[in-house]
Design a protein that fits this description.
about 15% strand, alpha/beta, 15 helices, Rossmann fold, four-stranded parallel beta sheet, 2 domains, globular
Length: about 350
């Protein structure tokens, strides 16, 4: 195995510890000389990879169309792992069309992703394999990992976490609106909301902060910014609210479930209802923060119910959604494509 990164990033060294690692030569320069140098370097890399005798290319996103075009001469079958739904696919139209053209099979991160590929992208059903996203087991499931609740999250009988980049797709504004609905019945000392994650856009961050002020929920809400390990916060929380407007099968929900949190999510916004079902939390109508607030009130009044739903979520994660289960499924698909190509 060798690894080709679209470009270098903060995980490059970690990839390099696993296998020989290359980065795809890019050039955003306006100067023709730099573009020519990048083109030559790209061709040298492709020629080197051609000599490697690879039997398959596994591409881990829809946006690698130009990379797959460059690798076409290798002559190996291509699997594209689709972790994206329509809003994101629409942002990478040219790359996606090239990726689709060069792919022999697709792995969909959820049934919601598969249905989108069938309905909107004219891909044959027999070439799509559903393998839900997965995360490794938590290294340490002991509460807090040595930290106290006060050090991580605000004190309160019920703590509801959300997580993701502060942006429209992740629904940070809906999380604030959810706090506004709960504010109508519970005091800050009875419940707290915590959003874990940073921001890319100052405007989107400021818009969210203005909404916090408008709804009067500053006492109810804490924004942590970016963190290395959200599970240390989840271990001190009571529930996880997935408020994304579009999310194929968010890993952060699995991380929350892995430490025993019940999951609240919207229907028809991605694949998370496929995990939650009827025993690991609540699935409410799309965008209905009032209904989600009602579920939170139910957890507040019945703490044992929250614990029971959380334990069901944890058990489901461990039996059906860990790396141990899903990596084997992906390897079977890879082997099947290699076998078909050899016929």
């Amino acid at each position: 195995m060798e690894i080709l990164l679209r470009e270098k990033g903060p995980l490059t060294e970690e990839f390099a510890e696993l296998a020989p690692t290359h980065s795809f030569p890019q050039s955003t320069s306006r100067f023709r000389l730099y573009k020519l140098v990048s083109k030559i370097r790209r061709r040298l890399l492709v020629n080197k990879l051609k000599r490697g005798g690879f039997s398959l290319i596994y591409s881990n996103t829809i946006v690698n169309g130009d990379v797959l075009q460059s690798l076409a001469d290798i002559g190996a079958p291509v699997i594209t792992h689709v972790h994206e739904l329509e809003h994101v696919i629409g942002q990478f139209g040219v790359h996606w069309q090239a990726a689709k053209h060069h792919s022999n099979a697709f792995i969909a991160a959820s049934h919601a992703v598969k249905n989108n590929l069938l309905l909107n992208h004219d891909i044959a059903e027999q070439s799509i394999h559903v393998v839900h996203e997965s995360v490794p087991f938590a290294a340490d499931n002991s509460p807090n990992q040595g930290a106290t609740t006060a050090e991580l999250l605000p004190a309160g009988p019920l703590v509801v976490c959300g997580c993701g980049t502060i942006e429209w797709r992740k629904g940070t504004d809906l999380f604030v609106a959810l706090a506004g609905e709960v504010r109508k019945q519970l005091l800050p000392g009875e419940i707290q909301f915590v959003w874990i994650g940073g921001h890319h856009s100052e405007k989107e961050k400021n818009d969210v902060l203005k909404l916090v002020e408008k709804l009067g929920v500053s006492e109810y809400l804490t924004f942590t910014g970016s963190v290395d390990d959200p599970r240390k916060y989840f271990r001190t929380a009571s529930a996880f609210a997935m408020v994304s407007r579009e999310d194929p099968f968010p890993l952060v929900c699995l991380e929350a479930a892995s430490v025993g949190l019940p999951i609240l999510c919207f229907a028809e916004c991605g694949g998370m209802p496929e995990f939650v079902e009827e025993d690991a939390g609540y699935v409410v109508p799309n965008g209905d923060v009032k209904r989600m607030a009602t579920c939170i009130f139910n957890l507040y009044e019945k703490p044992e119910l929250g614990k029971s739903l959380g334990q069901s979520a944890k058990a489901k994660f461990e039996s059906r959604f860990s790396h141990d289960v899903h990596c084997e499924k992906i390897m079977n698909i890879i082997q099947d494509q290699i076998d078909q190509a050899a016929l």
